[in-house]
Amino acid sequence: MPEYIFDESLISTEIQDALSPNLKLRPLAKDDFDKGIFDCLEQLSITGEISQKKFVEQFEEMKKAGGYYTIAIEDEDQGKIVGLGTLFVEMKFLRSCGKAGHIEDIVVHDSQRGKSLGRRIIDQLKHIGKELGCYKLILNCNEKNIPFYEKCGLTLKDVQMTLYTTT
Fold it and tell me: Residue limits of the N-acetyltransferase domain (predicted)?
């Protein structure tokens, strides 16, 4: 049995059932390193050089810290990760010590685009946020992606500011 980053009981069977039978929506697993996870993530941003050891260490740190809900869609016929997304839960003092969810790193492998997988990832992360009692979910994106996220039920609000502290 794989070791997952969070309990798989948070995965919606309704959302899973909307996928093709060969696709499995599940939490990120400790043994996903050799399943093309970085082939997928590199289509989103720079990943850098990451060894299997470093991947496992990061996985264990995230699991230990809690609050990280990274989901993967695996093409079980190919044994490859074809989609990923993360919900990070922030503990707040606002809203009666509420929780805010941050949706991050949404990516679908280019070989699988146009199959509504991105929509399923967002739906699943929204489901987890609701199950965990988040009072809001936040997602930052490029302007060109706004129409997609609006179709997923998110609305444009406020402005993001960024400061990169490393190159």
Answer: 23-167
* SS3 label, residue 69: strand
Return the sign of the alpha-carbon dihedral for residues 31, 35, 39, 45.
negative
> What does the pLDDT read at residue 114?
92
Q: Domain 8-151 belongs to what topology? A: Aminopeptidase (3.40.630)
Domain chopping of the chain, boundaries: 8-151
**DSSP-assigned letters across all residues of 73-98:** EEETTTTEEEEEEEEEEEE-SHHHH-
Count, residues in the chain: 167
What are 59's two structure tokens?
Answer: 């996985």
Per-residue model confidence (pLDDT) at position 166: 82
pTM of the model: 0.94
What are the Cα distances from residue 15, in Å, to 69, 124, 140? Answer: 16, 7, 23
Tokens of 110: 């280019």
Strand extents, DSSP E, the chain? 23-27, 68-75, 80-91, 99-108, 134-139
Q: How far is CA 139 from the centre of its chain?
A: 11
Provide the pLDDT for residue 128.
98
The SS3 assignment for 67 reads: coil
